[in-house]
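Help needed: design a sequence for this.
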């Protein structure tokens, strides 16, 4: 082997060692970043006491990442990052629920205190009227007329007490409605998560595709709901399963509103999905976005359920 060949082999070996060192350094940085993120969540004075189960699962996922082989590492890294994000989101949700429950208890306490004060005031007023009526019965006709005035005052007090009772009942109904709305919001978020995690691909005219339903966006808004951004794993696996294929993202609306506004909103929603995929590691150069507006409805726009089906974003792996 001549000297030139030896130099070439030495350079190649040095390059291989450098690549492995860089990969190992990046792996260590990923592991350190996720571990630091979990530690910060544990040490957070507000969020640290919430989402114990989710944080335990996240630590298991990080441990699996640390022990993963180089072949298993990309998937392990995705699962670890998703677990850490879910732990953070769960802690924040638990904190919001705790704060809401505290506010609700304080609200109920105030209502009860107000009702007790009103009842005591009414009792004292009625007792005063009783004594006055007793004295009026022993007086002259003039005092009897005055007693009638006191009777009218008592009726007014009773009317005010009844109005106070109705107000307390209305406030209680308002509080129950607020609790119901919060419960419905949690149920809607859970249903959305289930739909996103249960998405399946099917063959369309332009290629295999997945559809994100319109409830992944707030009404009239272009941004993805936070709970939707956190549960796009199936969609990410779908587009990354064939990394060489171009991706077309089509946004659709129902027929409500003007055509120009619908086209703009549908394009913005398609771009929001594109941005979420870029954040998840999908190459931006693979993706194109199109705002289709109210075109190509999949159901009748005359019904509420039909309009809901027409509001969607379709992600297509284009056939080459």
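Sure. Designed sequence:
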């Amino acid at each position: 082997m001549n000297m030139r060949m030896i130099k070439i082999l030495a350079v190649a070996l040095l390059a291989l060692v450098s690549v492995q060192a860089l990969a190992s350094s990046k792996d260590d940085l990923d592991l350190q970043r996720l571990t630091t993120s979990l530690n910060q969540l544990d040490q957070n004075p507000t969020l640290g006491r919430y989402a114990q189960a989710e944080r335990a699962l996240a630590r298991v996922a990080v441990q699996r990442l640390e022990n993963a082989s180089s072949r298993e590492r990309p998937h392990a890294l995705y699962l670890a990052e998703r677990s850490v994000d879910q732990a953070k989101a769960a802690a924040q949700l638990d904190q919001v629920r705790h704060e809401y429950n505290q506010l609700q208890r304080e609200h109920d306490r105030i209502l009860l205190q107000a009702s007790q004060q009103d009842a005591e005031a009414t009792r004292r007023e009625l007792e005063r009227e009783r004594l006055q009526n007793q004295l009026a019965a022993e007086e002259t006709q003039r005092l009897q007329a005055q007693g009638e005035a006191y009777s009218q005052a008592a009726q007014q007090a009773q009317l005010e007490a009844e109005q106070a009772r109705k107000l307390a009942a209305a406030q209680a109904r308002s509080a129950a409605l607020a609790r119901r709305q919060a419960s419905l919001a949690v149920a809607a978020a859970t249903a959305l998560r289930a739909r996103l995690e249960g998405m399946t691909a099917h063959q369309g005219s332009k290629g295999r595709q997945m559809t994100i339903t319109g409830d992944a966006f707030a009404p009239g808004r272009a941004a993805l709901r936070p709970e939707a951004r956190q549960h796009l794993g199936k969609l990410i696996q779908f587009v990354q399963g064939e990394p060489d294929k171009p991706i077309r993202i089509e946004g659709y609306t129902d027929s409500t509103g003007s055509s120009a506004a619908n086209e703009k909103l549908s394009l913005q929603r398609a771009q929001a999905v594109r941005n979420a995929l870029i954040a998840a590691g999908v190459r931006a150069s693979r993706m194109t976005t199109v705002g289709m507006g109210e075109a190509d409805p999949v159901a009748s726009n005359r019904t509420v359920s039909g309009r809901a089906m027409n509001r969607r974003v379709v992600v297509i792996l284009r056939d080459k």
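The beta strands are 202-203, 207-213, 247-252, 287-291, 312-318.
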